[in-house]
Amino acid sequence: MKVDIDMGTQSGGKAAMLDLEELLATRLLVQGNSGSGKSHLLRRLLEQSAPWVQQCVIDPEGDFVTLAEKYGHVVVDAERTEAELTRIAARIRQHRVSVVLNLEGLDVEQQMRCAAAFLGGLFDAERDHWYPVLVVVDEAQLFAPAVAGEVSDEARKLSLGAMTNLMCRGRKRGLAGVIATQRLAKLAKNVAAEASNFLMGRTFLDIDMARAADLLGMDRRQSEMFRDLARGHFVALGPAMSRRPLPVTIGAVETNARSTSPKLTPLPDAPDDARDLIFTPSPEEARQPIMVRRPPPPPPTSTADILAQLAQHRPEPPQPAEPLLPLIAEAEHAQMIDEVMREILADPDAAFRSVAVLYQDFLVRCRIRRVPGEPLTLAAFRRRFAVARAGVDMTTAGSDVWQQALDLSATLPDDIQGVFLVIAQAALAGAPCPSDATIARIYGSHSPSRARRLIAYCEERGLFVTRLDFRGRRIVASPDLGCETAPGDPNGPVDLVQAARPAAE
């Protein structure tokens, strides 16, 4: 059955009709700054459609409770538990009663939780009760915010999920969402995008005007017109009203909101005893107890949350065990490890063996020398072997710049750390840059081209900057360490001392 309701007049004086059946299938988005006439538009829509379709109004300010006087809406005060609101919503769909959910007096988080429970009850109703319902949500940016605010993540997720179900999946269940917002930029995009009908009112911010123009298919330059719209004037677009942007003036309403716009009223003549009237309490005030406004109690923790907290409980970590080696023997233990490292580095073939083979050799040598304590892990050996190969002196090893070099090397793959540390050591000491053959031997290769690729890799990571002097000698600078090597011949022979330099004692 086709039902057209009168929303007001068009620019030429013709009645602006809205196809109610098409609206139920395609949903509606109303946008306008405060004072643009959004609530007036929603009231006109509710009054005109009240005889034809069941209505549920999510009212955060209590403005629409006056519909009960003339049109028989039942006012549901939200000061109930979430379970009660869910059951009430199910009975509303069963008995097809138009209602106004009054959220006045609740803070924002409580309003979001109540609205989510109520919309969830409408959405989860039994299939036999899926009759058409016009669900009007005023100030929708409160219930479907684009970004997280001061409310808890749980409340935001509940409310946003309920609004998404209403706009995205509600049509098959007979729920037709009509949402109104002051700011399109504050409304979640996945909620706003599901509406096919739009009524755009007065808007001043550029970001909101641009989004409104995009939704209406208008040019960005035409968006300036939204600043000039008068109160109660909107631009309509959608299959329920017009296939092209249509200026509409909303008609009069039969009921009034409890809150009205402020009107200028002349001040009364100032009484002579104005000071006494302000600072002297009346006898009635003296008898009244002082009321202390307390914040609303937090919502009770659900059983599911308590079980989740218990499941996430972790016992206190055990106390660290006493070190196997006495503190006085730590220096001796480190010295024995260094001696084993020097023996391995002294082997000419060590540069061409894999780290796994060198690690096994290291473990055997430690057992031969009876090195006490737990042996190094493979990762610790690889790291220590790379540092030992760099062979820094004690002064450099204790400096902050060498610690910075160690931190930088940790960002590289394990097989490249030794190459980086050897070049960094040369830069810190001002020594000539190692040749390609030396770098290749440190890496465990005979290919000079592999050495050049290693330097290029470090340069791509921003660790090195390479240049050549007038004689073709290579200079490698480290921006992070603030130093550079002396010129060195990249085509020079292998420097066996540099390629197998042991760690300093």
Automatic annotation (TrEMBL):
<dbReference type="GO" id="GO:0005524">
    <property type="term" value="F:ATP binding"/>
</dbReference>
<keyword id="KW-0547">Nucleotide-binding</keyword>
<protein>
    <submittedName>
        <fullName>ATP-binding protein</fullName>
    </submittedName>
</protein>
<feature type="region of interest" description="Disordered">
    <location>
        <begin position="482"/>
        <end position="505"/>
    </location>
</feature>
<dbReference type="InterPro" id="IPR008571">
    <property type="entry name" value="HerA-like"/>
</dbReference>
<keyword id="KW-0067">ATP-binding</keyword>
<dbReference type="InterPro" id="IPR002789">
    <property type="entry name" value="HerA_central"/>
</dbReference>
<dbReference type="Pfam" id="PF01935">
    <property type="entry name" value="DUF87"/>
</dbReference>
<dbReference type="InterPro" id="IPR014588">
    <property type="entry name" value="ATPase_Atu1862_pred"/>
</dbReference>
<feature type="region of interest" description="Disordered">
    <location>
        <begin position="277"/>
        <end position="304"/>
    </location>
</feature>
<dbReference type="InterPro" id="IPR027417">
    <property type="entry name" value="P-loop_NTPase"/>
</dbReference>
<feature type="domain" description="Helicase HerA central">
    <location>
        <begin position="15"/>
        <end position="109"/>
    </location>
</feature>
